[in-house]
Each structure stands twice: as C-alpha cells, then as structure tokens.
Amino acid sequence: EWFFQVSQEVLNPMYCLFEYANKSNYCLQINAASSVNPDHLLYFRFVGRFIAMALFHQKFIYSGFTMPFYKRMLSKKLTLKDLETIDPEFYNSLVWVKDNNVEDCGLDLTFSADFDVLGKVESHDLKPGGSEIAVTEENKEEYLSLMTEWRFNRGIEEQTKSFLEGFNEVLPLQWLQYFDERELELMLCGMQEIDMDDWQRNTIYRHYTRNSKQVVWFWQAAKDFDHEKRARLLQFVTGTCRLPVGGFTELMGSNGPQKFCIEKVGKETWLPRSHTCFNRLDLPPYKSYEQLLEKLTFAIEETEGFAQE
Questions:
Q1: Cα torsion angle, 216, 218, 219, 220, sign
Q2: What's this model's pTM, rounded to 2 decimal places?
C-alpha cells in the first residue's frame, strides 16, 4: 500500500514532473516543463529509485508509463513507430515525409525543429548547422531518424538521465535483460480487469464458510458493483486496485503469498475493516443484504490512505 500511495503523489501530473502522453492516452511521460522546479533533477533521481524498488519488491504503482518510457528503462532504441501512441499527429507527419518525395512537394525542410516550452518557442538544430541543411530524398532517412530521436528527448534529456541514474542504482540493466517493455508494464501495474470467478476461487474464510449468508451477500454486492467500485473494494482490502499477472492466486501480503480472506469480526453496527498487510476483510455479521451493502459501500468510499492495520 505504501508504494501505491506514494506513487499516487509523486506521479501526479499536478506536480509537473510527469504529464499524460496526450488527450486520449493517460499513460505518463516526463514533463519538459518540470525544469521550473529548481530541485526537479533530485526528484527524478528519487522517482527512478522508487520505481526500481517497486519492481524489485514486486509492488504495484498507481499509474503506468508510456511504452517508449519502459523501453528507456530497458535501454532499448526508440523507433519512429514508438511515436504513434504518444504523439499521433507528429508521427503521421513523419510517416508522410517518409512515404512522399520531399523534393517534389517543395516543403523546404531543414535539419532543424521548433519547440514551445512554457510559451517560448526555441529552435533546435538536429545536427551541427542543421538549419542550413536542406532535407532531400538522399538524406531523408537521416532526417527522420534525428527527428524521431529529438522528439523523444526534447526538453527532458537531463530529467531522463537523472531518472535512469536513480533507477539503475537499484536495478542494474543485467537484472532486466530478460524482460520486454510490456512485461515491465505488467510487473509495475498488474492487471486492471477483475475476474470475479478467480476472486471467489482464491478466497479463504475465517469463522464464516462460503455458504454463510453474509459471504453470499458480499459476493452479490461485489458482482453488482461497477468496475470502479469493485477496484475500490479490492484496494480497501489489499492496498492496491491492481492484480498480479497470475491473478488472485498470486496475491501477496507482507510476508509473502497471502490469499484474500473474509473473517467474521465485530457487531452488526460496525463498519467493515481491512488489514492490507494480510489481504483480510473483517466483515461483521450483518442481518440483511441491504445493511451489508450500505456499510460496505460507506467503508470503501469514505476510506482514504492507509487502512487501519
């Protein structure tokens, strides 16, 4: 839960360290405007270490990064195709250049690019003297390669370097050599879809049985919840709304593998309580489905931060 709660803060775009990739892609990437904070490089080094610790301890974080960012963690070369998910308009413009004769179109392209940072437009040469070098069919591939590299690095070279330095202090590259970027995403973010059958199969009970009326009511409520409320229920009990790649059978507690547990505790006037270290829900012996639904809904919607134990 600590990893999940801290990541919710440090990765919050409101703090200007990270931003969403675009209006339709809510994966995170480094924000070029983060330099407004004089200590931003120290923060990025910390975040790099923090993300590596989450990977090492197999803990989930609140939000995921773009695929190109995961490739950076793995020191993989970024390609033109990688641009498609983070900047489709820019990607399409480069694909057009690739597929058409730039000399016939009269575009007058040079090896330079403009970039707007905090309202200030800056010109950048893609190579020495680039603003004086025209793009031709002969040198077009070099232009596309340099432009792609620049788009991924523009304004965030130092931030990326600090992040990776912190990351590699905890996890040397050799540790990650057998993973690809999608596996890295799953390891950090888990699965967001909740399989109710899998959940029920991998739940244990204390002082209840699977046929106890309160247990039957609990599963009825969980099945009736929409995805968001179901995720809140999971987070309330386990500390995270994400699941391991193997589903509920691989759910972890503070001392290793720990199945989801529902225990009969308290009086019907009590609210449900959670023990996130043990993935345990204390469910009082409510007298009706309506009473259970009311108390459970209040508990998961009004609880924020660390659980009681």
A1: positive
A2: 0.70
Buried b (16+ CB within 10 A) or exposed e, 65-86: bbbbbbbbbeeeebebebbbbb
Count the residues in the chain. 309
Q: Which tokens in the block code for residue 267?
A: 């009086």
The pLDDT tens digits of the residues spanning 211-250 come to: 999 999 999 999 999 988 998 899 899 887 777 767 899 8
Is 277 part of the annotated catalytic residue set? yes
Q: How far apart are CA 91 and CA 81, in angstroms?
A: 8
Sign of the torsion formed by the C-alpha atoms of 22, 28, 31 and 34: positive
- Cα–Cα dist 197/209, whole Å: 17
Does the pLDDT at position 76 exceed 60?
yes
- Number of separate helices (H) and strands (E) present in the chain: 12, 10
Work out the pLDDT band at 255, boundaries 50, 70, 90. confident
Catalytic residue among 16, 105, 241, 277: 277
Distance CA(240)–CA(243), nearest Å, equals 8
CA 285/CA 282 separation, integer angstroms: 10
Q: Which residue, among 136, 133, 111, 134, has the nearest Cα to 124 in the 3D structure?
A: 111
Residue 187, token pair as written in the block: 């390891």
Distance (Å, whole) CA 150 – CA 157:
10
Q: What are phi and psi of 83, to 5 degrees?
A: -75, -25
Q: What does pLDDT average to over the chain?
A: 90
Give φ, ψ of 138 to 5 degrees: -70, -40
